[in-house]
Amino acid sequence: MQWPWSTKFAHLYKANNYLAVRQEKFPRWGKKEQLYYILCLAASGYKQAALHYAHWLGKRVSSRKFILEALPLLAVHLPASALSWYNLHYALVKKHYNSNWLLPLAGAASAVGNLSMLKHLLVCLEQRDIRFTRKQQENLYFLEANYRTWLAEAVEDYVPRKVEHILKQEEPEVKKPRKVSYAYQALCHLWQSQGLASIPRSCPDLTFNLSQLESYTPSQVSGPLVSIIVTCYNAEQTLLLAVNSLREQTYQNLEIIVIDDASTQDIKSLINPVCQADARVRYVRLPANIGTFGAKNLALKLTNGQFVTTHDADDWAHPEKIARQVQPLLEHPELIATTSRWLKLDQEGIFTARLVYPLIRLNPASPLWRKELVLSKLGGWDWVRTGADSEFLARLKRAFGEKAVLNLQQVLVLGNELATSLMHDPKTGYSSLMGSAQRLTYLYAWQSFLTTARPEQLYYEPNYRAFAVPQALEINTANLAQDQEFITQL
C-alpha cells in the first residue's frame, strides 16, 4: 500500500514495522516524519544513525507542541537524545510541565544513569501541581528508589579529605545506622497499596536483589490443580530462586514441571534435592536443545492441571501470584486467562525496562489459562526458539476475544535483568543488531498474520508454519524429533 509521504513513517512506527525504514532515506522535509523515521531507525537497532539524526533535528525545531509530543517518544527509544532536547529547549517547555512527558523523561534519565537530571525531574514532578494516575504514581515510586539508591551509594563511596579525617579522629565514635534499601522500600509500598503481603528481607545491605527475599506463606488456599512449566537453560544462578518462589505460593495445589532444555550445566544435581523435598516438583531434562517455547510445548504433554501457567527460570513470583490469577477464573467461567504485571531489576537493585518507561509493565510470559479449552483452539505456543510469549497472548485474545483475558493490575512477578537472559542472546536478543532484526521481523510477521487469520489457522502444529519466520528463530527439526520421542516414552 502506498502511503502519503506525510504519514509514511508514522504508519510504519505505529504498525511496529520498524525494519522497513532500512530501505528508506532520511526525509528531507516534514519534522514529524523526520521524527518517526528516527524512532523507527532507533527501534530497529541503528542507534548511532538515529542519534545523529536526532541531534540534527533537535537544533532545527522550535514548536513547543512538537517538542512536547516528541520528548516521551524519544525518551523510550533514544533516552540520551530526549534529555539533550530537554536541555536545548528548556525555556520553551518549563512552563508546560505535565506527567505525560515528565515521567518518561525521568525514566530516560534513570536509564542512562544521569543522577543530576533525574533529581531535577523528580523535583519538578514533586513541586509542580501535577496530577498522577495510579499507574503513574506507582512508576514514580521506583524512579525515586533508583535515585535514592544511587545517591546513597555515592555518599557511601565518598572519601573525605585528609584534614577532615584528622579532625574527626577526636570525635566520639557514632554507631552507623542500619542500611536501608530504597528498592525494597518501594516494593513494600507498592505491594501494600495493591493489597498484597509484604515479603521479609534477609539482608540489611543497601543493595537489594531478589535472592534476599525470604520464604513467606501467610495463608494457604486450595483449589483445582495448577500446572506450572519452568523451562531453563544453564540457569544454575537463578533456578532455585524461581522454583522456591513457586513452592512458597499460598495456592498449594500445584505441580511444578522443570524442563531442562539440554543445559551444559549440572542442573540435575541442583534441582534433585528440591524434588526429593517437595513431591510437587518434577525435573525433566531434554536430550537436545530446542529453545524455551519448543520445550514448553513438549512440557504440556506432562501436565495434569485444570489450569496452566509458565514461569521464567530467572524470575521471582510473589506468594499470592497463583491464587490471585486463579480466583477470577473460578468466579467467572467466561474468562479464559489472566495476566499480571511485573518489574525488572538488575543485580545492583536498580529498576529497569528495555523500553525505558514505564517500569511496570504487562507480563506476557506468565498468563494463567484454562488448559483444555485453550489447547483445543491454539495447540500451544508458536514453535520458534524465542519471542513467542507475546504472540501466544495475542493469539489467545484473537481466538476468544479481548474480554476473555483479564489483566490484573498487581505486580506479581519480579524479573532479574541478567546478561544471560534470552533478551541478550547475540543471535536472537534485542541487545545486538542481528538479534533485534530477527525479533522485529518475527513481531511484524505474527502481527500481520493475526489481523486476518481465520479461527482454524490459530491452531499451531510443530510441522506446519502459518507464516514465515527468520531462520535463526526456527527449531532444529532433528533435535525436535529426538525430544518428542523422549517425551512420549516418559
UniProtKB/TrEMBL annotation:
Ranges where the Glycosyltransferase 2-like domain occurs: 227-349
Database matches in PANTHER family: GLYCOSYLTRANSFERASE (PTHR43685), GLYCOSYLTRANSFERASE 2-LIKE DOMAIN-CONTAINING PROTEIN (PTHR43685:SF2)
Protein name: Glycosyltransferase 2-like domain-containing protein
